[in-house]
Amino acid sequence: MIEFQNVEIKYNDFVAVEAMNFTVKEGEFFTLLGPSGCGKTTTLRSLVGFIIPSKGKIMVGGKDMTHLPVEQRKIGIVFQSYALFPTMSVYENIAFGLKVQKLPKDEIHRIITEMANKVDLNEQQLNKNVSELSGGQQQRVAIARALVLKPNILVLDEPLSNLDAKLRGQMRAELKRLQNDFGITTIYVTHDQEEALTLSDRIAVYNKGKIEQIGTPHEIYNKSGSRFVCEFIGDINRLNEPVLRQINQQTGRQFDLSKPGYIRLERISLSLPPAIHKPVCLKARVVENEFNGIYTKYTYDVDGVLIRNVEKNDGSMSYINGQEISLFLNADDIMQF
Ligand SMILES: Nc1ncnc2c1ncn2[C@@H]1O[C@H](COP(=O)(O)OP(=O)(O)OP(=O)(O)O)[C@@H](O)[C@H]1O
Ligand SMILES: [Mg+2]
């Protein structure tokens, strides 16, 4: 439905985004993920029409939109910089775009009542001032304001970043539910990898103005396409030469000893995993343990290389610093780039 074809975006001489190519399918929840300053907002701004690319095309539904004015694009926008009007009531905020369209008053009322119901805002809240609502409620107002205009596409730029951790988790679930209910094609920007993994159908991982990898959360996490992606997404172990050498010896594999191998924390186990053809066993010493309630995160020394894993606290066993243990892993889980 949305197609970026070789898009380049410049601020004066500075190339903020280059050779951008991706396609978003109808109804998809597509996330742009990457560190600060990598070009996520810039990409969104070009889709919305706030900025015109210096090269390439942006197609929507087969039509070239690259130069179309903002108001003709039918895109719902939830940007932080596109804040709610703080002195107006919630109702007036949601009604704003509809009034601009000069819809009759009772029609506006009907649309808003219906939308408020869908995003769980009650009548009392509708009559409040925006400034009297919590961050999460304001977020729902912003989404309602965008959705009443029946956009073809919804774009959200870090909509949850101002909220505290707990509310962010709640809003995340709510956002996902809303997107499911409306089935609207959504492009979402975040630098929070957990948010991206839980919400998205697919993720584009950005690095310095370019996309490093596009894939489902599973692909991005378990089959990272580059060193940058695997280090940016989630926690990971870096296996250096002494460990890789042992792994090669035990399995007959040929990991390149001049480069690190990467393995996720949960892929390393203190018990022999069933159904692995040739498990690797590493002699290790516990050097740190960090109790987290459900899990404990351990750090081990293996031949001078620090390796971490997480163990579920099921009440059976816990380990203390200095203890000698064996670590098991499957060489198939090691990524090397
Ligand atoms: N108006 C502007 N004029 C000049 N340079 C800009 C402008 N806006 C952004 N940039 C630069 O373009 C690059 C990409 O910025 P962008 O805002 O797209 O990053 P981002 O990925 O959204 O980052 P963040 O996560 O911090 O919001 C940055 O190097 C930034 O300094
Ligand atoms: Mg940004």
UniProtKB/TrEMBL annotation:
The keyword Transport applies. The keyword Nucleotide-binding applies. GO terms for cellular component: ATP-binding cassette (ABC) transporter complex. InterPro entries: AAA+_ATPase, ABC_SmlMolc_Importer, ABC_transporter-like_ATP-bd, ABC_transporter-like_CS, P-loop_NTPase. Residues 2-233 form the ABC transporter domain. Keywords: ATP-binding, Nucleotide-binding, Transport. GO terms for molecular function: ABC-type transporter activity; ATP binding; ATP hydrolysis activity. PANTHER family: SPERMIDINE/PUTRESCINE IMPORT ATP-BINDING PROTEIN POTA, SPERMIDINE_PUTRESCINE IMPORT ATP-BINDING PROTEIN POTA. This is Iron(III) transport system ATP-binding protein. It comes from Paenibacillus prosopidis.
